[in-house]
Amino acid sequence: MHLYRRIGAALVGLMTFVLVAGSAQAQDTGDTAAMLGPRVIGSEDAPVTVIEYFSLTCPHCAAFHNGAYAELKEKYVDTGKVKFVYRDFPLDGVGLRAAMMARCVDEKRYPGVIQVLFKTQENWARSADPVAELQKIGALAGLGAEAFESCVQSDALANGILAQRQEASAAGVRSTPTFEINGRMYPGSRSIEEFDEILEPLLAN
């Protein structure tokens, strides 16, 4: 937990710097509001909403996405029982850039890009040049070199993601992953059996 506090303090400092820098520059993204908009899978009418707060450089988040996520999606999201919402909570600068890149690709490709980023996390996040590796992944999702550079250098987009992270912190998120299920916080990665225990009573009501 002390590590998360130190990272949080560093990101608050980064956000202050970006906000100051951004105030002196023109907006460098075509539609930042759309990029910062909700990223959701599942039915809007689903009786249960699961919000995941995650960092793309978080190994515990990768463990969830490479494990229980597929079964959770198949069992609850694809059947219309759960609406799943992705929320960025970057833990470091690399995680922030990865979140920015993912939000710059076509919205329909976002869930797939997130899965690729988590599947290959150890490769790109620990490489000598993570941004170059992110560009390769973005290219596979249709994000050209020029668009990628504009994306990861966008003060407006960075500001927005960091502001959302700060809002999540104020709401009680302290670590990643954290799941907010119908308004209640559940920190830590969970197995499908643990999700069953939480979700089935909610669906029975």
Structure description:
With about 200 residues, the chain is α+β, with helices and mostly antiparallel strands. It has one domain: Glutaredoxin. The chain has helices at about 1-25, 30-35, 60-65, 70-75, 95-105, 110-120, 120-125, 130-140, 145-150, 155-170, 190-205; strands spanning about 40, 50-55, 80-90, 180, 185. Strands 1-3-2-4-5 form a 5-stranded mixed β-sheet, sandwiched between helices. Helix 1 runs antiparallel to helix 10 and helix 5 (about 95-105) packs across helix 10. The radius of gyration is 17 Å and the shape is globular. Mean pLDDT is about 90; it is low at about 1-30.
Given the structure, what is the number of helices? 11
Fold-level CATH name: Glutaredoxin
Give the N-terminus to C-terminus distance in angstroms.
35 Å
Order of helices and strands: HHEEHHEHHHHHHEEH
Could you say how many structural domains there are in total?
Answer: 1
What percent of residues adopt helix (DSSP H or I)?
55-70%
Q: Total strand count, please?
A: 5
What is the topology, as strand order, of the major beta sheet?
Answer: 1-3-2-4-5
Shape: globular
**Sheet with most strands:** 5 strands, mixed
Rg: 17 Å
CATH class: Alpha Beta
> What is the strand content?
5-15%
CATH architecture descriptor name: 3-Layer(aba) Sandwich
Q: Calculate the mean pLDDT score and round it.
A: 88
